[in-house]
Amino acid sequence: MKYRQFGNTGLRVSEIGVGCGGLGGERKMGLEPALERAMDLGVNFFDTCDTYAESRSEQTLGRVFLNHPRDRFVVCTKFGGVIENDEWRRDISVRHLHEAFAASCRRLNVDYFDIYLVHTPPRDILAHGDLIEALGRMVEQGKIRTFGLSVEQGDFATEFVSASPGRAIEIAFSLFAQDPRNGFLEVARKLGVGVICKSPMRNGVLTDSFRPDPAPGDRRLKSLGPERHARMAALWRQVQPILTAGGRTMAQGALAWLLSFPQVSTVIPGVVSLERIEETAAASDRPMSADELAALDAAAGGALVGARVD
C-alpha cells in the first residue's frame, strides 16, 4: 500500500480507502473480517456517515476500531441530517452539529475525528457562518483535525474551499464522471486541500461485473434504463482493454486512473466482500503508464475528459 499527504493537513492516508456506505445494513452485514483484512493490507482510511444504515455503519466500524491503536486509522465521518419517519431531513444547525459529533464519537469509539464533513450540504453553505465558525472551533479544540464537504460538483467544492478554512473535500470522481478536472483539482493543489474520491467505479459500471450485453432483467439495465445503459456499454467497451492492461481488473484500472492525479489523496471503493477488499487494495501497486492515460483521454474522441456520462 502506498500513502499520500492529505493536502496540507498533516494527515497521511492510504491511497486506497474503504467507503462504508450501507455497512451494517441488510445487504452488508458481517463484514468485520473484511475491514480487518483491509487494515492488514495497509488501508488506514475509512469513510462513513452518521446516517449510513441507520447509524449501523459507524457502529460496525467502531467495533473494529476497538482492536487497533487510534493512530492506526484515519476516520472520516459526516453529519448534516436526521432520519425521521424513514426519511432523511437536512439539519446543519450548530446544535445538531454538537449532538451529531457526540453520538458519532460514541458509536465509533473515538474521542476525535480526523476529518468531519457536511453531508449533502446546501448550495448556500457559506451563508451559514455560525456552522463554519463552530467547525473551526472544533479544530482548535482538537475535536477534529480538519473539516469540509461531501459534494458532487467541482464548482461547488471550489467555491467552498476558496472562501472557508475547510480543507477536505469528498467529491464524485471517476473515469465516467470527470467534473473535478474542470478547475477544482488545480484549486485543491494550490490551497492544500485533501481530496477524497467517492463513487470511483461509478456505482459498479467500471468493474468486471458490468455486462455490456445484459440479459433481460439485469439489475444495472433496470437501474440505468436501456438508453443510458447503451451509452455506458459503448464507452465500457472502449476503456475496458486499457483499464485491464497488464493484468489489472476493471476496478483496479479505474482506481489506478484516479490515482494518476497527484491532487487526489485517497479513493474509497465500497466494502462489499473480503475478496473485493483484496482486489481494490492491490490497485495502489498497479499504476497506469503514460501511454495508457493518454489512451483513456483519447477515448470517445476525448469526450470523457472533464465530462459526466449520463
Shape: globular
Distance between the termini: 33 Å
**In percent, how much strand structure appears in the residues?**
15-25%
Question: What string, H for helix and E for strand, traces the elements in order?
Answer: EEEHEHEEEHEHEHEHEHHHEHH
Query: What is the spatial order of strands in the main beta sheet?
Result: 3-4-5-8-9-10-11-12
Name of the CATH architecture: Alpha-Beta Barrel
Q: Briefly, what CATH class?
A: Alpha Beta
Which spans of ≥5 residues are poorly predicted at pLDDT below 50? none
Number of strands: 12
Any idea of the CATH topology?
TIM Barrel
Report the mean per-residue pLDDT as an integer.
96
Class based on secondary structure composition and strand pairing: alpha/beta
How many domain regions? Answer: 1
Radius of gyration: 19 Å
CATH homologous superfamily identity = NADP-dependent oxidoreductase domain
Largest sheet features:
8 strands, parallel
**How many H/I helices?**
11
Explained architecture:
By secondary structure, the protein is of the alpha/beta class. It has one domain: Alpha-Beta Barrel (TIM Barrel). The protein is built from eleven helices and twelve strands. It has helices spanning 32-40, 56-65, 94-108, 129-140, 154-162, 184-191, 219-224, 226-243, 250-259, 274-281, 290-298, and strands spanning 3-5, 12-14, 18-19, 45-47, 74-79, 81-84, 87-90, 113-119, 144-151, 168-172, 194-198, 266-267. The strands form three sheets. The chain has an eight-stranded parallel beta sheet, with helices on one face. The protein has a two-stranded antiparallel ribbon with strand order 1-2. Helix 1 (32-40) runs parallel beside helix 10 (274-281), helix 2 (56-65) crosses helix 3 and helix 5 runs parallel beside helix 6. The model has no long low-confidence stretch (mean pLDDT 96).
